[in-house]
Amino acid sequence: MTAVSIQEYAVADAADGPYAVTVGPDGALWFTMVHSGRVGRLVPGGQPGSRQLDPGCGPTVITAGPDRALWFTEYQAHRIGRITTGGRVDEFRLPTPECGPFGIAAGPDGALWFTETAADRIGRITTDGRVTEFPLPVAGAFPSAITPGPDGGMWFTLNQANAIGRIGMDGAVAVHPLPTPAAAPVGIAAGPDGALWFVEIAAGQLGRIAPDGAIVEFPLPDRAGRPHAVTADDQGTLWFTEWAGNRVGSITTGGVVETYDLPTPRCEPHGITLGPDGAVWVALENGSLARIRRAIEG
To answer: Which of 26, 54, 100, 258 could bond 118 through an S-S bridge, CB–CB 3.0 to 4.6 Å?
Structure first.
């Protein structure tokens, strides 16, 4: 039997909208506040702090870069942002206007790779701000989350094309359609089994895609739960958020699913990451971060 402990920590006002969360090179949790245009920082057990950006820039996904800084997308301002652990911010405007950058992750080549939801492109930005864009072979695809894969490529979800994509370091793109129609994949993460795991927000499922393109899907107990983001822990399990179901869930690589209700109703769980303390942390749009710690009971 699996038991979890869930604690919620207020880090902002409900109107600020904590959205994504990651771990920085300083061992702190860094998170975006999409509605107020801020980037926050929390050391587990400490008090939260934040840095104000352009209030309307819409910071969304945030990730640790190869340069000991945090990189994030500004969805509304169509920029990529960088913040050092000391709080210095640099912003980089993108070549394509109104492109809507969303997902971002560090690649194996020492650069950051990101999705452009409104431009059907994948972007690459070096740590000194040089940007290259790669067009996708699908129109209206709404590329969303992106993550490095075990095969040296970057894997991403195509929310409106109902597919998973892969781009190599040479810019070559492959597209893998999903078996379930209109599944609308969003979050994606590398799993401990050499595959990529993703969530299907409109179908209420998780999916697994091997580097060769083979796909398996796992229906969730609540098909209306709207799974949003996924991450791997350090014990071989994947964790995901269900923002409509007000839950977090776990899935083993064998497909065993468990779900856990969050204490606060309508808290809207979004981003999820493995924290520096070994617990799973979730950004709640109601103004908090949730810490989930699992124990196995005999």
So the answer is: 100
Q: What are the extents of the domains in the chain?
A: 2-296
The predicted-structure confidence for 251-267, as pLDDT tens digits, reads as follows 999 999 999 999 999 99
Q: What is the pLDDT of residues 143-164, one digit of tens each?
A: 999 999 999 999 999 999 999 9
Mean pLDDT of 81-106: 98
Residue 91 marked ligand-binding: no
**285: annotated binding-site residue?**
yes
**98 annotated to a ligand binding site:** no
- Predicted local distance difference test score (pLDDT) of residue 294: 81
Dist. CA 163–CA 141, nearest whole Å = 9
Q: Is the pLDDT of residue 297 over 90?
A: no
- Measured at the CA of 103, the angle between CA 101 and CA 106, to 5 degrees, comes to 115
Looking at domain 2-296, its CATH class is mainly beta
- Give the active site residues: 270
